[in-house]
């Protein structure tokens, strides 16, 4: 994963409110109001197709063209796969399919550690759409109704640049490739509050003066919120049966450098008839844990610990216990839609 630099400046993007709220879970949904929707509920999903980076990865790239999940080995590799959690422990993918899915689910996971949005485009093209090893070419009986396409990306992009415009535009153009191939159920996961991870909270380890830490944390927090607001705006746009141009608007309270105002990211104008687009907030789920660690079974002192912590494996990757709670929240979220 790329090194995050909390000193970089950020721009701000305003997002309109979501179409549909899900107050019973720490997350929310955007659903296209379409009579042709293929979303019949989480209990009807048989296949997950996952794209992204280290928070989601369960296998190495050389295995991805040969994935053959079954009910005994739902990840297509020996459980729990290769994750960035503690050795031999599952991430949210493993927890979801073994503990929280209402019915058996088979996973085609193409997420690769260190990936950015351009890498997600390659994951879609190289593995899912492959003429030789793609699921459709191998006769996997996935359909628009029995499959959910999940993308969780952004942290590595934000380590390279604080501006979400270009990567999010590319992200949704890549989703259009999935739509053209027959995908109709889309789930996006936004980025968690890494400004509260040891990578940022222990900035003295990186030589950041104490006087500069508060401003640096504010810049870091704005960076992740900017991504999430831009992601939500573009997801809403992607879900709309009649997309209208997004108007740039900004959130001054988050804006750090008023001299730089990147425009709202908008993918190519397309009408995605029948697409159901959902957005799960890992930001809210992880914030709930960090706001009340003891209420979630974690010692208060572990919030800022980088090693030997029950919350963080390292500077920015959460433990399997945290992934378990993310999977629980995601399952509750999907179960209510």
Automatic annotation (TrEMBL):
Gene3D superfamilies: SGNH hydrolase. InterPro entries: SGNH_hydro_sf (IPR036514). It comes from Serendipita vermifera MAFF 305830. This is Carbohydrate esterase family 16 protein.
């Amino acid at each position: 994963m790329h090194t995050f630099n909390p000193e970089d400046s950020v721009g701000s993007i305003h997002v309109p409110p979501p179409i549909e709220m899900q107050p019973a879970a720490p997350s929310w949904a955007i659903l296209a109001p379409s009579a042709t929707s293929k979303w019949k509920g989480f209990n009807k999903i048989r296949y997950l197709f996952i794209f992204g980076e280290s928070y989601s990865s369960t296998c190495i790239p050389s295995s991805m063209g040969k994935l053959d999940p079954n009910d005994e080995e739902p990840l297509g590799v020996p459980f729990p796969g290769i994750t960035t959690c503690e050795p031999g422990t599952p991430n949210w993918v493993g927890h979801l399919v073994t503990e929280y899915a209402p019915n058996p689910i088979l996973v085609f996971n193409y997420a690769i550690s260190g990936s950015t949005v351009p890498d997600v485009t390659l994951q879609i093209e190289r593995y899912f759409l492959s003429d030789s090893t793609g699921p459709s070419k191998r006769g996997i009986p996935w359909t628009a109704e029995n499959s959910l396409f999940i993308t969780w990306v952004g942290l590595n992009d934000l380590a390279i640049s604080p501006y979400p415009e270009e990567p999010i535009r590319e992200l949704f153009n890549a989703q259009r490739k999935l739509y053209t191939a027959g995908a109709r159920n889309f789930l996006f996961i936004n980025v968690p509050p890494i400004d509260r991870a040891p990578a940022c909270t222990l900035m003295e380890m990186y030589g950041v003066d104490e006087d500069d830490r508060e401003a640096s944390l504010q810049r870091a927090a704005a960076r992740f919120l900017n991504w999430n607001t831009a992601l939500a705006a573009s997801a809403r746009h992607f879900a709309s049966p009649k997309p209208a141009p997004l108007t740039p608007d900004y959130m001054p309270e988050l804006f750090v450098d008023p001299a730089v105002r990147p425009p709202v990211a908008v993918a190519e104008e397309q009408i995605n008839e029948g697409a159901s687009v959902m957005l799960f907030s890992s930001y809210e789920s992880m914030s709930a844990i960090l706001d009340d660690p003891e209420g979630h079974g974690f010692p208060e002192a572990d919030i800022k610990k980088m090693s030997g912590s029950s919350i963080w494996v390292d500077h920015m990757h959460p433990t399997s216990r945290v992934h378990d709670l993310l999977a629980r929240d995601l399952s509750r979220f999907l179960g209510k839609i």
